[in-house]
RNA sequence: GGAGGGCUCGCCUAGUGGCCGAUGGCGGCGGUCUUGAAAACCGCUAUGGCGCGGAAGCGUCAUCGUGGGUUCGAAUCCCACGCCCUCCGCCA
């Protein structure tokens, strides 16, 4: 949710942001009107409540004849208060709805839609492969990836990682966690099932709702990223940011329904219903958040360097940001088999948008609570990291070279077809 | 799955229909004393909305798990829900 004070002070800024995102600027005016109506309703209800309270207090000391008259009066007021409170509740509900409809203000992101990203840099050299195999072909030869039986047991977009495939994932997790600890993130293993409040508070029940698995019998949701559990960890809290940002590296399985992506990336493990991920998450002040965002990106690139995979960094356009983010950088690895880039990581700065909904605050310099900024960034997404590794490090003989940084965690320098 | 107990301001706790936003202790912050520290003593120590104000602030409303209800008036009475805990059973 955006800051209503900012909205009142500078509605044109918000309207401009809406246009840059390709969203409707009229939503801004609807929000302004709802805000106005809510405040008017509160003023009316407050006045009536005050009057009723005063009358009630008079009754306490009053003698019978006067007392009866006062009670009559109070009864009438009570009915009016009830009415005014219903109006207030309706106005508040309307405001909330209008409030949720307006995404975060993103003045720094490139304007436009999905295709309007800006490439910030390209790093590394694309491998020179005469006839590159795709990751599934390589993975099957290594007996590392088995999607056929994944489908037999669980359906499309499920898979088995076996042998070096399984070991590869564990090595990647360990490499990522080691880096996380080294730079000072708090390693965390988090719930993969969360309550509605956590899902809602992080904003995933809005546009993302069809993407989310829900367990009907228990009214719990399967997280699509540990961002949910990490962000919600401090919901309704005032946290201490006076010394340093609060930073986590959360490891969890991620579940995604992939509704609406039928026919897309159907081969292999590029787009799956379940994978494991190490996610970085920071709580900072809004002022610090822009710098923190670059820090998360730098840590992502550091990890990509260890994978020795060519990649590029893009500045995602406003229209493709998601409601919470003011800016998002994606790291995309080169995919030799398809001759295109594949999103491996994503770092978003949500400023105080998400924290306002989750009610997460910190003490400002004056001691008063202010909403914090939240940021999230992928450190290591298992399946796509494996895809990038297998394809970029494949050798003509079907073996796969293991990047140096990963060797100690995997215990070998090359993966040989079985 | 069955049976109980509980949910009050960071923590513990008082409060069972009327100045209760709420008692007391601990912790925290500030001060007095001290060469310094401890002890002792004194003071301060929730949050949000709305209005006024440049601001400090002032006024007002709301909040005692959540939502309803009873009542002129609810932390206190009633109902529903949520959550936590304990015991039994079952499973890991």
Task: Explain what the structure shows.
- The strands form five sheets. Strands 1-11-12-13-16-10-9-4 form an eight-stranded mixed sheet. Strands 5-7-6 form a three-stranded antiparallel sheet.
- Helix 2 crosses helix 3, helix 3 (26-61) packs antiparallel against helix 4 (64-100) and helix 5 (135-141) crosses helix 12.
- It folds into two domains: 4-100, Helix Hairpins; 118-415, Bira Bifunctional Protein, Domain 2 (BirA Bifunctional Protein, domain 2, 2-Layer Sandwich).
- It contains 13 helices and 18 strands.
- A hairpin with a 4-residue loop joins strand 6 (213-215) and strand 7.
- It is α+β, with helices and mostly antiparallel strands and 418 residues long.
- It is elongated, with a radius of gyration of 27 Å.
- It has helices spanning 4-9, 11-21, 26-61, 64-100, 135-141, 147-154, 164-182, 196-201, 227-232, 286-307, 353-358, 382-392, 407-410; strands at residues 118-123, 145-146, 160-161, 186-189, 193-194, 213-215, 220-222, 237-239, 246-255, 274-284, 311-315, 327-335, 340-349, 360-363, 369-371, 373-381, 400-401, 414-415.
- Helices cover 43% and strands 22% of the residues.
- The chain binds one RNA strand of 92 nucleotides through residues 38-39, 42-43, 45-47, 49-50, 52-53, 55-60, 67, 70-78, 238, 369.
